[in-house]
Design goal:
Rossmann fold; about 25% strand; 7-stranded mixed sheet; alpha/beta; single chain
């Protein structure tokens, strides 16, 4: 009997997942399929964008490394060196970056699992030659315009040989910080604002005030967040609303029930979403985090469709990332904030 087949053999697994937080959420059921097997040492590569959410992955014998979202040359060399000098049994390519698909050709003793992409105009990532060297792969076929399986389902299918195929819901091991406990209002609707999308819609501060004030007819409080990146053209909310700054613990109080949770991230952000009564957000990280917990969500699915290519891209994104459960709804927001709110009322009621 070979060492690999012996009962005490510890498999060495590498999971490549250095992308955005929303994409990490889509991969969590597959990652748990992998890490729930016994006798495994697992190393997971996250990006600088998703490193603050590694708490979502809990298990034994797991190590994390942070690599750039866009791999640097030195990071590529470090991956090659690792695979060359260390005994790695399996590699899961859950982030379909071109560089990763060269590795199965170079390291043929390792079993590589991957998500491959087919696109319009005979686009393939990787090409058919390099796919031959993958031990197992699943195709995300974006060349088709009919309804397709989500990326979450495809990744679960890729890892289904582990026979877990679980419906992942995060455990309650994520504690609420004292600062969040002391500043979290009761019965609140949570919103996340994307600066670029708001600018494209043409919403100004009066539009947002209209939205917040009308939501207060249905909820006791409104809590909202915005992009962490500083933008001098973004609205100064501190003049109008309560501001709770999670970075420097500064608190600015106003006489209203509208709260900006500024510079919030990681566990505090996760728990704010978890403890909300309702989530309203432009599609992305916040809707993905909320869908992990099967929260009541209205996804503001913003679309700019000027041609067939735009239509195809949005349709593909919809199929790939739309959650499937009763509490999830989506609307296409309008430049007219009153029209947008009329659409919102149906999911609120």
């Amino acid at each position: 009997m070979s060492i690999e087949n012996s009962f005490n053999y510890i498999e060495k697994i590498l999971i490549l997942k250095n992308d955005a937080v929303g994409d990490l959420c889509q991969s969590l059921p597959a990652i748990y399929n992998i890490i729930n097997s016994k006798n495994r040492d697992i190393e997971i590569y996250l990006s600088e964008r998703s490193k603050n959410f590694k708490f979502l992955i809990k298990g034994k014998n797991i190590k994390f490394k942070v690599f750039s979202y866009d791999l640097k040359f030195i990071e590529k060399l470090r991956i090659i060196k690792k695979l060359f000098f260390e005994k790695i049994d399996k590699v899961y390519i859950l982030t379909p970056k071109n560089f990763y698909f060269f590795l199965p050709f170079l390291f043929r003793r390792i079993k590589f699992y991957g998500i491959c992409l087919n696109g319009p105009n005979n686009y393939y990532r990787p090409n058919l030659f390099f796919r031959k060297y993958l031990y197992k792969y699943i195709i995300n076929d974006r060349s088709k315009i009919y309804k397709r399986d989500s990326t979450e389902y495809l990744q679960k299918k890729l890892t289904s040989n582990n026979n877990f195929d679980n419906n992942f819901i995060p455990n309650d091991h994520i504690k609420v910080s004292e600062f969040l406990k002391n500043n979290l209002p009761n019965n609140f609707v949570y919103l996340h604002l994307k600066n670029d999308t708001i600018k494209k819609l043409g919403w100004d501060i009066n539009d947002l005030k209209y939205l917040f004030e009308n939501l207060l007819k249905y909820y006791q409080n409104v809590v909202f967040t915005k992009d962490i990146e500083k933008n001098k053209n973004f609205i100064d909310f501190s003049k109008l609303f309560n501001v709770i700054n999670f970075s420097n613990k500064e608190i600015i109080k106003k006489k209203n029930k509208i709260y900006l949770f500024d510079n919030i991230k990681g566990e505090d952000l996760y728990n704010t979403i978890k403890l909300s009564s309702k989530i309203i957000a432009f599609h992305g990280m916040m809707t993905n985090l909320g869908s992990l917990m099967k929260k009541s969500i209205t996804d503001l699915w913003f679309c700019e469709i000027n041609n067939w290519h735009d239509y195809r891209n949005y349709r593909n994104a919809f199929y790939e990332f739309k959650p499937k459960y009763n509490g999830y709804n989506f609307i296409i927001p309008s430049k007219d904030i009153k029209k947008t709110f009329r659409k919102l009322i149906f999911s609120i009621k």
